[in-house]
Specification:
Structural class: alpha+beta
Strand order of the largest sheet: 4-3-2-1-5
Shape: rod-shaped
Number of strands: 10
Number of helices: 7
Oligomer: single chain
Number of domains: 3
């Protein structure tokens, strides 16, 4: 009975000494949760004005909430009389060990934040970097996912992108086709026919204007260079359709297609000799 009375007295003494502190600690944590939600709502409106991608906004808001709750948790522990200096020292040692073990992950995260805030590309852009290319499907804190033209996905770590030469095509690309017409055709009429054929293709964009010009006088005839703009999704199909459309338009108007020719002259043969005659 003496032990029970002593234990009961100890519990009452602890309740009197630490009860108010525990209550204040609980209220501090509750206030931390309220403040974290309020800061999260306010931060969400601010990040929306920055025009960040939805997954990135969610990640940043979670980080902010964790930081706020962590700060209030430290206040609660300090109110309970917990010595924070050894705790902070221990957490520092653990953090250093984790940082050494996850150097690649941390470098990807830092590179991801750099991409998020500098915006060298956006979701939907077609980019080429570190030997791969594709349409940007997702930008996360650790990597960037590209959709290749064969519909496969390429996951590129963000640290491989930052600091590399990046070619961002945007959402449209300039394709290129080339066609040769014979030297004897009406070159002005041939250019007009090519322009009409290009304009009739539904994949070709009205703006920017397609570049259509005579590139050179080649051995097979005048080479006409055609460089229209198309959407990224139409890039692979537009080239073949343009070749078919331009060829059909030129043939329909009787404009000869240029092709390599070789004139062979044989010494000793008279000009009026029959084709099957002997050669001296």
């Amino acid at each position: 009975m003496d032990k029970l009375v002593h234990a009961q007295g100890s519990l009452i003494d602890l309740a009197i000494r630490f009860g108010p502190r525990a209550l204040v600690a609980v209220l501090t944590l509750a206030a931390g949760g309220f403040v974290a939600r309020w800061i999260g709502r306010t931060g969400e409106r601010g990040l929306t004005r920055l025009d960040l991608e939805p997954p990135v906004r969610t990640l940043l808001l979670r980080i902010v909430r964790l930081v706020v709750i962590g700060g209030f948790a430290i206040l609660a522990l300090a109110n309970l009389g917990v010595d924070l200096l050894p705790l902070i020292a221990g957490l520092s040692v653990i953090g250093a060990g984790i940082a050494l073990a996850t150097q690649g992950v941390l470098s990807n995260a830092v590179a991801g934040l750099t991409i998020i805030f500098t915006k060298p590309y956006r979701i939907g852009d077609f980019i080429a970097v570190v030997g791969v290319e594709g349409r940007v499907e997702e930008i996360s804190i650790f990597n960037t996912t590209l959709v290749h033209t064969d519909r496969s996905r390429v996951v590129v770590p963000n640290r491989k992108i930052v600091g590399e030469i990046l070619h961002n095509y945007g959402k449209i690309r300039q394709t290129r086709v080339s066609v040769a017409v014979a030297f004897e055709v009406d070159l002005v009429g041939a250019l007009r026919t090519v322009r009409e054929a290009v304009a009739s293709n539904p994949r070709v964009l009205d703006e920017p204007k397609a570049l259509i010009q005579v590139a050179e006088a080649a051995a097979s005839g005048f080479r006409i260079d055609v460089r229209p703009w198309v959407a990224v999704a139409d890039y692979g199909l537009a080239e073949g359709e343009l070749y078919v459309g331009i060829d059909s338009a030129l043939r329909a108007r009787g404009l000869a297609i240029g092709y390599p020719q070789l004139e062979l002259r044989m010494p000793g043969r008279t000009a009026n000799a029959p084709s099957g005659g002997p050669i001296d």
